[in-house]
Amino acid sequence: MKLRNSLILLLTATIWGTAFVAQSIAMDDVGPLTFLCARSLIGGVTLLPVVAVLSKAGPGHAGESPAERRSARKTLLLGGACCGIVLCFASAAQQIGIQYTTVGKGGFLTACYILIVPLIGLLFGRKCGKFVWCGVAVSLLGLYLLCIKDGLSIGRGDALMLLCAVLFSLHILVIDHFSPKADGVKMSCIQFFVAAAIAGAGMFLFEQPSLSQLAAAWVPVLYAGMLSSGVGYTLQIIGQKGMNPTVASLIMSLESVISAVAGWLILGQKLTARELLGCVLMFSAIVLAQLPDKQKEKGR
């Protein structure tokens, strides 16, 4: 089971890593909220037939009382809504930020969630081991090399990507809370329609969307909608079920490496030697944070 879930999350990371390229290309034709609304809507519509097929093939609600069915439906709707709200704001920060930074840097900064997840866990009484704290220290040095420019300033795109990492950390923890209690595919479908509704409201408030813009960007929009959203986030929910959220975030953080390679191969975006060193330190911190704490295990 764990091997299967790990492979599912690895496939998720591959889809997301290459989706950074689609997100970057789409910004030539559409606004970030328009893109987010379209991809989320496509993601939700893509899952509707899957939900219908699984509902017919599944065991249904046999043996459940009306009260239990109502409770399960309430949990499903609440989980989908919470996931959709957090996903919308996280994706918006990422989509706006990618306009001001490279695909490679964006991928590594987004992957900071692997370090943020255990730190947020401190608020809920979950202790961090020594390797997590070492990882945080190494990542700070990596972030300095990757993002901080002369005068100790940080670029707008890099700052938005860091905000995106914090929000995606919350998304991982929300999924960890609801995925054992609700159908993963249905919850994913609901989260996309919720995200599309919020992004759509922002789209009409802050942008001037048009069908011609979407037609010009139909390839990256379709890729991001069907694969990155419809397939990727659903695989995340399925793959995360029953897994430690920190381990899950480690596997998904491989999207940072994949995005850097994809940005170089497809878009020709190159990182400086300083930025490459920062990427190496960031990924080392991600791995370091996941090393088992022998003293902690012995104590258990």
Q: What does this protein structure show overall?
A:
With 300 residues, the protein is mostly helical. The protein has one domain (2-53, 71-291). It is built from 14 helices and 2 strands. A two-stranded antiparallel ribbon has the order 1-2. It is globular. 49% of the residues are buried.
Strand content: under 5%
Q: Kindly report the spatial arrangement of strands forming the biggest sheet.
A: 1-2
Largest sheet: 2 strands, antiparallel
Helical residue percent band: over 70%
Number of H/I helices? 14
* Beta-strand segment tally: 2
N- to C-terminal separation?
24 Å
Mean pLDDT: 83
Which parts are unreliable, with pLDDT below 50 for 5 consecutive residues or more?
Answer: none
Structural domain tally: 1
Radius of gyration: 19 Å
* Pattern of helices and strands: HHHHHHEEHHHHHHHH
SSE-based structural type: mainly alpha
Q: Which descriptors would you attach to this protein?
A:
300 residues, mainly alpha, two-stranded antiparallel ribbon, 14 helices, 2 strands, 79% helix, 1% strand
